Every structure is written in structure tokens, then in C-alpha cells.
Amino acid sequence: MSSMKNRLKDVLPMPVVALAKSMLNGYPSLIMSSLSEARRYNKAYAKDTAKGVKQLESRMMYFTHQIEKGLSHKDFRYGFGKRPLQYLAKTLKLYQQRVSNYSDSMPYRSALAALGEYLKRHVDHEDTLNYVRSIFPVTTLEAAQKMDGHEGGSFHFSEQYKKNNASLTFRELSTNRHSIREFSTEPITYDEIKPALELAMRTPSVCNRQPTRVRVILDHTIIAKALKLQGGFNGYAMPPALILLTADNRVFMAPQEHNEGYTDGGLFGMSLLLALEEQGIAACPLNTMFRKGPEEATRKLLNIPPYENLVMYIAVGHFPDRCITCVSHRFQAEDVVTVVR
Ligand SMILES: Cc1cc2nc3c(=O)[nH]c(=O)nc-3n(C[C@H](O)[C@H](O)[C@H](O)COP(=O)(O)O)c2cc1C
User: Fold this and answer.
1) Which of 33, 106, 238, 254 is most exposed, with minimal Cβ within 10 Å?
2) How much distance in Å is there from the Cα of 326 to the middle of ligand 1?
3) How many Å apart are CA 225 and CA 246, to the nearest integer?
4) For the purposes of burial, counting CB atoms within 10 Å of the CB of 199, is it exposed (0-12), middle (13-18) or buried (19 or more)?
5) Would you state the pLDDT for residue 261?
6) Ligand 1 pocket test, candidate residues 284, 323, 330, most atoms within 8 A of CB
7) Helix (H, G, I), strand (E, B) or coil at 289
8) Is the per-residue pLDDT at 7 higher than 70?
9) H helix intervals, 123-237
């Protein structure tokens, strides 16, 4: 782009150069970078026909997460998850064909652990077990039964465990934070959430321009409508509060900054999750990865102006007496770190 601008300078009069420069810096440059991003993304993402190892691992983690969510429901629904189990079986098979040491990999072990718990919880449900036996090979089911629970499945703790959160070290707080999707029925007030919001304002942002905007939704009807459009919270009782984080594009100054709101908004989201945890308040981040229709309906419902990008929701409430959530096992740092020396 800059060499093109230099060449223009040599051949065109100054006012024309200024006009051309502003055009290259504006809308055309946004369109070109969006096209290039679209091309790169389209080649990389874990679509259902993808056969790459990383894509298979991600698809495994996605289906494992569906099973873990089902295993974490307070009101357990026997026989749940037939479709994710089917997709998981197909993905595990492809993965076994592609990766020689598949049984050492985190996503594979996590899938087996979730499957192992699924088998245990359905021990007296022969119909469901027969279904599982019909889609997974015996060897996979035997390996799943040998897994212990810490690499996948559901994770249980008592609300008492959260009483001293304000005195924990950062390491303890962060290690023990889990997404909570089933809250106590006790309502939550804005005043209870406010200290966490105030702490999250300490989140760094690009040149301190602080693009994140926060809506705290306490109206139950609006929460229900918003989460119906969101779609990733189906099957749960509505949370007592819902926070929406958006990024205000009016703070940005150049086309190349157009994705920065997601970065700054994501950082704000993490600060807020930890600040809520520190206050002993339960939360679960929820995506705003909408198709066009739900995005427009959400914007209308919550009166979001066009200059704001949706970053994420956070469902918020009090911890129930007994908490059940997903293990959501993690990669080791060395699995994702490249040291450049
Ligand atoms: C941006 C974002 C969007 C998410 N969207 C959803 C969602 O739509 N539904 C859901 O149940 N969980 C959602 N989650 C929660 C993740 O499943 C959860 O953070 C992950 O499994 C790690 O577990 P943990 O939060 O308990 O550590 C989302 C998390 C993030 C960070």
C-alpha cells in the first residue's frame, strides 16, 4: 500500500495525491483487509469437511463441550446429546487415522473422559448405552471407561468454596474460576455487580481509548429475548442478570484499527469475569457470534447503535448451593507457546 502511495506522488498533482491517499486509507483499505481476512479465515477454519489435525482437535473439543454441558445440568436429561455423540464418534475416528500418538493428545483424552462419564451416568439406561455402542468402537469405549474425571466431564463444588474469594491470590482465583450456567434463584442487583465493573475499568486498552461499553440487563423479559436470539444458553433457566459488552468504533482513528474493539473488549471481559469471581459472583461468558438476522434483532432489542460492535455477553448471578459445571480441560502452555530466540 505505501509503495503504491509513493508511486502516485511521482505521477500525480498534490491535490489528486491527497484525495487518492485518503481513499486508500479509508473505505477501500477496509474492504481490501476484510477480503484478505476472509480469504485467510476461509482456508483455516474447522468446517465440517476439514481434515487438518488442528481443525479435528477443535471439532473434538466443541463436541466434547456439548457433552460436558449436558453432564453438568442440575436436572440431568438421560439420553441427551445423540447428535454431538455422533459427530464426536466421526471426529475421533478421523483423528485416530491422522495422528499416530492420538491417545496422548489433550482433546482426545478430554473427549474420552467426557464419554467415560456419559457411560457411567447411563449405567442403567440400556437404550442409550446401545446407541453409544452402535456409534463408537469397543476399543474407544473401553479406553473411555478407564479415564478418571479430571480431564473431562462435569466438575462439582459447593458454593461455600467461593466464600473467601476476596482473600485468594490471583493464581488461586484464576485457577478456581469456572463458568457457571445455573444460578441461585436469588436476584442480583446492579449495586452488587458495580464493584466488579469498577475494577474492570482498570483494563488496559489501545492508547487508553477505552472502547468498551457495558449494558447491564436486569429486565427478565429482555434477558429471555436476548438469550433466545443468542442460542448458546438453551436448556438453562434464565440468569438473574445479563451483561452485554460492545466496542464503540468512534474511538478508533484508522482502518487498520477496525478489529481493535474486539481485542480491548475481550480484555475487559476477562477482567470483569475475574472481578466478579473475586466478589463471589457467578458468571458465564456467552458469545455474540451472530448471523445477520439475530444480530439485527439483537441490535433492535437492546437499542445498539451501528457504531458499536457486539463483543460478548456475560450471564451473571449468585452461585447455587451446589455448583456443577464443565471440566473444560486445557492444553499445556507448551502446546501453544513458540519461543522466538
Ligand atoms: C467469548 C466467549 C463466548 C462463550 N460463549 C458461550 C456460549 O455461548 N455458551 C456457553 O454455554 N458457554 C460459552 N462460553 C463459555 C466457555 O464454554 C467456557 O469459558 C470454556 O469452556 C472454559 O471454561 P471455564 O470458563 O469454566 O473455564 C463462552 C466463553 C467465551 C470466552
Assistant:
1) 254
2) 10
3) 18
4) middle
5) 98
6) 284
7) coil
8) no
9) 126-135, 138-146, 170-176, 190-200, 220-230
